[in-house]
Amino acid sequence: MINERLMQLNLPKLFKFDDGSTVENVNDWERRRDEIIDVILKEEYGTIPPRPDNVFVKDMRRVHNDFAGKGEHLIYDLCFMTERGEFSFPVNVVKPKGNKKNPAVVHIAFRPDIPDKYYPAEEVLDLGLTVFTFCYQDVTTDDDFESGLAAMYDRNKWTWGKIGMWAFAAMRVCDLLCTFDYVDSNNIAVMGHSRLGKTALLAGALDERFKYVISNNSGCSGAAISRGKEGERIKDICNRFGYWFCENYKKYMDNEEKMPFDQHFLLSLICPRYLYVSSAIEDKWADPFNEFITLKEVDKVYCLHGIDGFASEDSFPRPGDVFSEGRVGYHLREGTHYVSRYDWLRFAEFIKKGDRI
Ligand code: GTR
Known about the structure:
Elements: H1 2-9, H2 26-45, E1 55-63, E2 71-82, E3 85-96, E4 102-109, H3 121-126, E5 130-135, H4 136-139, H5 162-177, E6 183-193, H6 195-206, E7 212-216, H7 234-241, H8 263-268, E8 274-280, H9 288-304, E9 322-323, E10 328-333, H10 341-356
Parallel strand pairs: 4-5, 4-6, 6-7, 7-8, 8-10
Antiparallel strand pairs: 1-2, 2-3, 3-5, 9-10
């Protein structure tokens, strides 16, 4: 059933090189991966500046909010050099007390407060995860190119839209946390919801230090295949939020079948690492069905690697379904566009499962 739907959509082929030849093995895939990165940056998210030489902490504060004595809350001012001088933004860390190396999550957040309605900090702490949260607006707001990170690089040189900028910031948080003794740097996740779920996918696709890439309700231009999509289409997203992408993306408004890629290209870059996508049944704008089928397509890359990818049935999932046996996980929950406690708990389970392997 799902495979038939994928065939009908006539998606651009993951295993076909630009010159028409075929990917036969994992070595070929590594070369194909570079082509895929090029096309999604050139046509969708824009080009992104290289990693800065040095990321450092300018200031650190301790917050007296110790989660029943079980945790610590620190705020770092993360700083690095850009083309136009120094740039910094605050990063909140909530960690279990002590110096044990714990898996870490880079949480790209809507809000700066800890905890907030989208982030049940105490529950996540109790699960033994250290969470580095930054608020996307502290890096750069949605449509302003005159301040924040957007103003720190030459726009004629780099074509990035806002999703690229937030993804770049998530990678800088990763640079920083890798320097801390209390982080298990072999077990780092990146996670986001909605526009920030799109961002988590891009950061995870580009930066292989993220072993787990978790995207909640990311929908259009995130986890969902654009061809045949219900709810939000490329035209809708470009009309409202064109600045999240590069200019080239506008070519595909009402013109999806001309795209030399689709969202399975982005998600395929995460293989052989751990990928988790979550949908909500009432979030029709994001289109749970098209989020789900992307994973079916991406599973083919895990097969090429001889790794268990997406272990699901060949039918559309029901609310309450969780598929987390392989390296590609998914759940569909009841309710609306939101990142809930239910979602966080599934993410934590998925990370811990990977951690044991
Ligand atoms: C919706 C938008 C989605 C999603 C979300 C958000 O309105 O159309 O693509 O990103 O907003 O708030 O991030």
